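Board notes (copied after class):
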Amino acid sequence: MNGKYMYIALSALLGVLCALVTFFPFFILMIIYMYLLYQYKRFSKEQIALLVVIFTISLLIGMRGERMNHSLIPESTTAFTLEYIENPKIDGDLLQVEIKEKFHNENLLLRYKLKSENEKINLQNKIFFSRVCRVSGSLKKPAMAKNPNGFDYRNYLSNKRIHWILETNENPLQHCTSIPSSLLVTLKQFRFTGTRYLIDHFPIEIASLSAALIFGDRSLLNPALLGNYQRTGIVHLLAISGLHVSLLIGVVFYLGLRVGITRQWMTNVLLVAIPVYVILTGSSPSVIRAGLMIFLVLLTTKWKNRLKLLPIDAICLAFIIFLFIDPLAIFDVGFQLSFSVSTAIILSAGLIFSIYQHSLLRMLVTSVISQLAAFPFLLYHYFELSLVGIIANMLYIPLFSFVYLPGVYFLFVVQLLFSNTPIIFVNSFLKIISFFNEVIDYAAKIPFGSFIAGRPNLILLIVEIIIIFAVFCNWEEITSSKGKRHLILLGILLFSLQMELNRFNPYGEVTMIDVGQGDSILIQLPFQKGTILIDTGGTMQYHVEEWRQRANPFEVGKDVVVPFLKGKGVTKIDKLILTHGDIDHIGGSFSILEELKVKQILIPSVIAPSETELDIIKIAKKKRIPVIKVAAGDHWNIDEFEFFILSPERNFAGERNSGSIAFVSRLGGRNWFFGGDLDQEGEEKIIKKYPNLTIDVLKAGHHGSKTSSAELFIHQVKPKTVLISAGEKNRFGHPHQEVLERLKKVNATIYRTDLQGAITYRFYKQKGTFSTFLP
């Protein structure tokens, strides 16, 4: 069976995908796969039958996993008996911890808002394990994604078999009794204690890096630094994986032999130590994969006369075991990246070492192979691929292998043995970390350092995987001119396919993005003729005590609008229209300007811009982005599409909402009115000046407030469709019932982001249809 386990693993994968994603396409792929193996690989009927059995077993396991993945706890439950099964995470004044509800034997996520700084300090140093506690609270469903390509927290937790968030107002350790610790709990306690030990004895820069590399805990890392690692494509180095496990196991094995322990004994010791190490480091998919592989290799070394296993067989067996135990792991991005990249490197190892002799060249090629293998998954989950990742990996892989990993273990062991690490070691290591953090910060800010193509659909994802497979196949023929030519053409196709499909898309779209209590609308013209973003949403920032501040607070521009745009494959915005200076309309602009190319900014011609507008103008000046003040009568054309501004008058001096930019355009055969937070006074001025104005689609002013959408205005323009952007259960009561009644009187169809999520009008030439993200 040597070298054949890969075919079994693919059968298992197709079976799970049939069960958990969509049956028919992957079932057809399985039939094609069987035919190709029988016809071209000369597989016997017995071998084909084995693969069909594996496929069927995987299908049944996947179906069972999906069927069992639901909650048994009634939503009305308010009293709980629970056991803590993971380390708590405290961010600002929020404590979160995974728990097991004892009566239904079901996992929940507990949230508790800390009441004081003293309580925070106290709970940070408490061990939550080995306790059964009584807690009262209410069950809440995790948040769903309300925009295309948005992060679906409910789905994310569901794949971890968590269906409820338990919110409590009482200290979660208030009513507890101790229970005996199991081996698993003891190891988790040791992990928590080890992390706290690092925090107490080292500067935060060293402690956070050490916690990530020793215990697999990245929660201490600075969010900005973590973002830089993500943008430069080296974040995988902060996750314990094959690199870390192999180095550590190799060092331990070597040291064991040096002190006189036999190979047989060291093998036995490591077979016991690897599962322990996997638990100690957090049991992430990457460390489980690495641990399983090394465990299987050591097992075959121990049984070398009865079983032989190639590296590709080891990773395929690890993949099959993983899927059989937890089929839902297929949706985990760490699982996908770990197995895809490792498999690609293992399969290409022979090629790398036979063709490329120089070590630097081998590192470069290995980095390219890793990026290619990760390509479709990075685009699907993060919508972009780092173009500096290849060089960054070449620099930071040796840094982690020969400096960071040995360094954090050395300092940790010295501190444990002598209770005091020489300050010269700490300061030297701190300087190295600080220097390379500055380097990665610089690399992350390199203009055009990312390839943004948007999220591929399922068909495109499969096509990209096939192209990557073809790239690897043709790489074997790189010594011939034909092989080089094919490799270049395939590379161009891979990087241009999705971009060109976007560019030649004949459909246009107008999307009201759900940004909560705010406004943001994206207009995408057909064939990428133009991209216009009207407002960016925004998050109100309130002053809070330092201990309450979150490490990475939610910001609608960064967390909603930018991912939405990147998921659509938007790389530049031709016009960023900021209707007026309120934070809920333009607060997200800072993230837009940082992450994307903006060609022009339009703001209202007002006497007194808001502080936020002035800050945006300063940033635009630094980035050399033209800022144009517009007023009634201004207009512009993009091909056959015309945009005409109706309000405000030039050098407007009134109330801010009255000075909102209001403009009309004809898109997809309908007349559209976009008016920011224009109030009734502003609306009445417009219909007096333009008495023949008719509107098919109205963006309701001020989130459906009764200060906008005047009865006279609605009666004259008679909109057929009205879009209202309002936050779910917002404290202002938007949209107001009075406004809804006015709109019903003219038989307008009403779409609301608070109820339906993002609202999209997709059009082709003069016809189009509305759709909502939520049903």
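Comment from the instructor: Residues 5-68 form one domain. The chain has five domains: 5-68, 79-180, 190-351+391-450, 462-503, 508-542+555-772.
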